[in-house]
């Protein structure tokens, strides 16, 4: 549906109305769970259930969510 450019080996991609992150081979590194996702450069901003937060490229939450990891 939509995509951003790759940064740090991952690209935000929208699939079925949700955003996730793919690797250069097209496989999802972080599944499409987010309402919005910005490119990851160390950390990336994501919107989940109406709240903004930041995640690492491995899906670990840096700031903003009670959930500790998205994978």
Strand order of the biggest β-sheet = 1-2-3-4
Relative strand content: over 45%
Order of helices and strands: EEEEEEEE
Query: Class by helix and strand content?
Result: mainly beta
**Count of strand segments:** 8
Shape: globular
Mean pLDDT, to the nearest integer, reads 91
Low-confidence spans: none
By DSSP (H or I, 4+ residues per run), the number of helices equals 0
Distance between the termini: 21 Å
Rg, Cα atoms, Å: 11 Å
Q: State the major sheet.
A: 4 strands, antiparallel
Helix content: under 10%
Give an overview in words.
The protein has 71 residues and is mainly β. 0% of the residues lie in helices and 51% in strands. The chain has no helices and 8 strands. It has strands at residues 2-3, 11-15, 18-22, 28-34, 36-37, 43-48, 51-56, 61-63. The strands form 2 sheets. Strands 1-2-3-4 form a 4-stranded antiparallel sheet, with no helix packed on it. It starts with a strand and ends in an 8-residue tail after the last strand. The model has no long low-confidence stretch (mean pLDDT 91).
Q: How would you describe this structure in keywords?
A:
four-stranded antiparallel sheet; 71 residues; 51% strand; mainly beta; single chain
Draw up the topology in text.
Blueprint: E1 2-3, E2 11-15, E3 18-22, E4 28-34, E5 36-37, E6 43-48, E7 51-56, E8 61-63
């Amino acid at each position: 549906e939509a995509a951003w450019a790759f940064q740090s080996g991952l690209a935000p991609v929208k699939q079925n109305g949700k955003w996730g992150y793919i690797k250069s081979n097209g496989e999802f590194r972080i599944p499409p769970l987010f309402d919005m996702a910005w490119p990851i450069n160390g950390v990336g901003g994501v919107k989940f259930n109406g709240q903004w937060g930041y995640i690492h490229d491995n899906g670990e939450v840096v700031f903003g969510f009670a959930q500790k990891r998205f994978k």
